[in-house]
Amino acid sequence: KAGVTQTPRYLIKTRGQQVTLSCSPISGHRSVSWYQQTPGQGLQFLFEYFSETQRNKGNFPGRFSGRQFSNSRSEMNVSTLELGDSALYLCASSPYDRDTEAFFGQGTRLTVV
Amino acid sequence: AQSVTQLGSHVSVSEGALVLLRCNYSSSVPPYLFWYVQYPNQGLQLLLKYTTGATLVKGINGFEAEFKKSETSFHLTKPSAHMSDAAEYFCAVSKSSGTYKYIFGTGTRLKVLA
Known about the structure:
- The structure holds 2 protein chains of 2 kinds.
- Chain A has strands spanning 5-7, 10-13, 19-24, 31-38, 42-50, 53-57, 64-68, 74-78, 87-94, 103-104, 108-112.
- Chain A is an all-beta fold.
- In chain B, 0% of the residues lie in helices and 54% in strands.
- Chain B has strands spanning 3-7, 10-14, 19-26, 32-38, 44-50, 56-58, 64-68, 73-78, 87-94, 103-104, 108-113.
- In chain B, a hairpin with an 8-residue loop joins strand 9 and strand 10 (103-104).
- The mean pLDDT of chain B is 92.
- The chains are: A mainly beta, B mainly beta.
- Chains A and B meet through strand 4, strand 5, strand 9 and strand 10 of A and strand 4, strand 5 and strand 10 of B.
């Protein structure tokens, strides 16, 4: 069974640009969540989606947005990039059954220059 | 509000020695607790989880953790460290099943000395 697939793995963008990151969940998983990992702030929750609906949102500015498609694939977008947005962005999928955990992808390393 | 505290950002142990990584949580409701491991340039891999039931939880690679409600702790242990255990370990809490909004601790980097 394939794991969570995140594309691209590495990305370099210029300050002020926008970026879209993609996440394909494990087959059959209906929930997708996103996290930002930085050395200074650690792992911080961004969003959680289920059946194309955002269920939870973390404390991030409106420049961060996301969506989920009918096939459960998800994208997140960051507009007007800032240097501080440089981070490892992790996507996790879950079957949304009781007592289950999140399965994480390898992440997308975003560098803003 | 929920929070997770991991004592010790860096822990060093000798190969074959006991591994003990500490995690304390605060939660107003019975929590769901997790330990994840992260190797360099990788995502997070689940080691073990506590949801309901038995408080001593066994995970992969010989790790285990005990949920102690009275101490609000969920410490991770392994009787004998192996070189391959060198990685960063994260404790996480969620308030219930059905949500994957996890609150993570700041992580503990484990170094195993030959």
